[in-house]
Amino acid sequence: MIKDRFRLPTLERFRHQVADVNALPQLAILGLFSGLFSGMVVILFRHAVELPLQHILPNLDDENFEGLTLLERIGLPLFVGTLLLIILYKVKPKYLRVGITHVIERLGYHQGHLPIKNMLVQFLGGSLAIISGQPVGREGPAVHLGAACSSLLGQWLKLPNNSIRTLVGCGAAGAISAAFNTPIAGVIFAMEVIMMEYTIAGFTPVILAAVTAAVLSEMVYGMAPAFSVPPMFLASLWEIPLVVVVGIMAGVIAASFTHLVQLTCQLRSRPLWQRIILASFLTAVSGALLPEIMGVGYDTVNMTLSSAVPLQLLCFLVIGKLLVSSTICGLGLPGGLIGPVLFIGASLGGALGIAGGFLTGASGSPSGFYAMLGMGAMMGAVLQAPLAALMAVLELTQNPHIILPAMLVIVVASMTSKYFFKKPSVFLAQLQSQGLNFRNDPLSQALQRTSVSSIMERQFVRLARYCSFEEASQALATKPIWIVIDTDKPEAILLAADLARYLDQIQEDTDEEHESDNIDLLALPGERKDIIPLYIQATLHEALEKLDQTQVEALYITSVSAPMINRINGIITRKAIERFYQFKH
């Protein structure tokens, strides 16, 4: 029986168009919606954090933890931490996985399908963590929320998994763009950190998502950059050695940060209540001693960029934020680490800038300039994403004079952390600590971004195992490539050329009529392959993995998930996947 031909409804036809790796118009539309949803959820998350803090902290300042009394700085983390524990206590452990690491894990092992329950835990838990004063950032939760919104959009539309992966990148770009008002950095971050690849097909929807989210953010928060930075530039090329020193020191601190996160990840096997109590206690103690490190801390970063923080305090801030933030992030609580990394980088750069000022004198660059360099160096080294760090610092400060020294300091810091201390990206380090090894080799990447529907063979007919000569001849008249052999279900495929050769041989052997002759398609000589089903949303990477696991050589692609309905949309063989990769590369 030849596969049914019918006119697809609009939504179904759209899904099939998006399955094509080159369907840029459809992906562009999805990118716009992804940016819209991710921008909205990030704005909602920021309001969920800022509005309560404006009522808790003095002067309606959502970052003024320094204005609290000593007792309030101790009591706030303990009280809100207890509330967080009560809310999350009954949540299953699999739904407690949140943040950018969770997004990368779901991309690598679940084709970008992000569960809604993890998203809700991230929204509520992340907002309470920041409200409690924990020294964590809001960008990690924002990326998770934006990526999850986009993934859920793709799942609702039942798009192919390669399209859902692209939507996850769109959501991440939109989240960074809305959180920082940095659309270019959002695009580079999504490609370099989340998807870990650069593709022409991926750039267009990701760019549109970042622009859409940035427009929404500017409508709510205005067009001002995240940090207020006075005009600054490198005063003299003689300061280049000091820039290199900042890069080396940032690489050392970045490696220390990653190492502490790796060590603390070993505590994730402990019960949740123990980890929340430990995080709340650390926040209370550090807040009592150094209230500047509580919360996101961007008010302190702004002061550092304005060269308004003394050297001794900057040194304490580097040490305090490094120890407490890395520990809390490693515990797996729902806070982000990009904010702390920028805080540590600004404090480190500002401190080294002040120290270097004793050598350069009044003619040297201000310490705020080195604070900007420190931010980029720490972000590039911890995330192992130098281009994303460069664009983030450039857009955050809107200072074009920083490009040349920033390129140098980021490269030096990244190489120091990666090659001297052998530290990977902090997100990959967290995955490795959980026993996961994210695959981003070229073969996996190429197969993950291609849907099975884009290369499956559609020229086939279905025949019962025992068929007549006439039935076989009629089937071959449609010029198929494969014959699907049916028993109670699709069992194997046979090359149509082999069946045609067999029928010709019968005709040569005798001149009698063959209408009543029975042919056993599993017995005649020819190339046959056992087949098993695969859902049409799958990628070529999933198809290859299933072939490896089951040791069969072919799959039939079905758009119906019900096991009793054996509708066939196409055929994919291992050789077809190998030919596709060889042709592309």
TrEMBL record:
Coiled-coil-forming residues are none
What are the transmembrane regions? Answer: 21-45, 74-91, 198-220, 240-260, 272-291, 311-333, 340-362, 368-390, 402-421
Compartment(s) of residence: Membrane
Which keywords does this Swiss-Prot/TrEMBL entry list?
Answer: Chloride, Chloride channel, Ion channel, Ion transport, Membrane, Transmembrane, Transmembrane helix, Transport
Q: What is this protein called?
A: Chloride channel protein
Q: What's its membrane topology?
A: Multi-pass membrane protein
Broad class of where this protein is predominantly found: membrane
* Entry superkingdom: Bacteria
Specify whether Transmembrane helix is a keyword of the entry. yes
On whether Repeat is a keyword of this UniProt record, the answer is no
Return the SUPFAM superfamilies for the record. Answer: CBS-domain pair, Clc chloride channel
| Species | Zooshikella harenae
Xref: InterPro entries: CBS_dom_sf, Cl-channel_core, ClC, ClC-type_chloride_channel
